[in-house]
Amino acid sequence: NDQLALPVGITLDRFIMRNEADFPFATGELSQLLRDIALAGKIVNRDINRGGLSDISGQFGSQNIQGEHQLKLDVIANIRFIRALKNGGEVCAIISEEDTELIPTGNNKAKYIVAIDPLDGSSNIDANVSVGTIFSIYRRVTPTGTVPTIGDALQKGDMQVAAGYILYGSSTMLVYTTGRGVNGFTYDYSLGEFFLSHPQIRTAPVGNIYSCNEGNMDDFPVAVQQYLHKCREQRLIGRYIGSLVGDFHRNLLKGGVYLYPATLKNPEGKLRLMYECFPLAYIVEQAGGAACDGKRRILDIMPDSMHQRAPLYIGSAKMVEDIYSLHFTHA
Ligand code: AHM
Ligand code: MG
Question: Can you give the residue ranges of the Fructose-1-6-bisphosphatase class 1 C-terminal domain (predicted)?
């Protein structure tokens, strides 16, 4: 039987362990943290798959037929990840899209900080469209043992030690980097394991996909309008799910650029720097691509606040560079 002749796949756990052996002073804490995130991801994946069946995709605070309180899936995902990170013990504080303040975990001895969007694109769930989790990991700057501060969390994108996302799509995937390239793992439901399916992902220097919400076209900066005009002249492929992880992942694999410029409604852009732009920028650069806000490389930005927004142009390096140059032409 040909199928049985296939070599046993590499599980995420084994891959993480192997990589740890490459770092002579590794203590295993980051590895454990990545495993904690993967475990919470499996639980959230199960919650999402049941979304249509159980009453959990309704409005937060609304009541179901039995008059019971319902939680929205993004609220549930937030609870799952925070719980996993608190129990895992490797994280001293968390920034989440769902919480206005820094969340101390009580593990003051832990040396890592996590920024997370537990369920991005959740407005898509009711229509059974892909959603994702995005995460970013930093080392704290204050000494371990002390109470973590907001200063531990507000670090330049370049300071990330790891970043990744989980895409709950037609199959569920976890993609992450620790600064040595990008690897993708696909979830095998029957075995309950992520298997290495996309080793060392590289993104094309130029792609033929552009992704943006064209409904906002009239609000876009002139540079972006011109760029999009060029895309259409060249008959590039327009693809936009409106679910960042899905749009990003497709372009990463196929080559292309994702744009979320400043608009009238969102003059600073819509996407959040710390748990949307930074992690994806780190991943794209590790895959050979680029990310900027029109003026600066995303990873060079020093955040002032946890939930700050930024315009985002991300994907194939040459395409991002073209957008960047056009911004200067029109500055
Ligand atoms: P969310 O964090 O409230 O889910 O919003 C983020 C989402 C992204 O997934 C997506 O890329 C973007 O918002 C879509 O915005 P728009 O509907 O304005 O095109
Ligand atoms: Mg989001």
Answer: 206-326
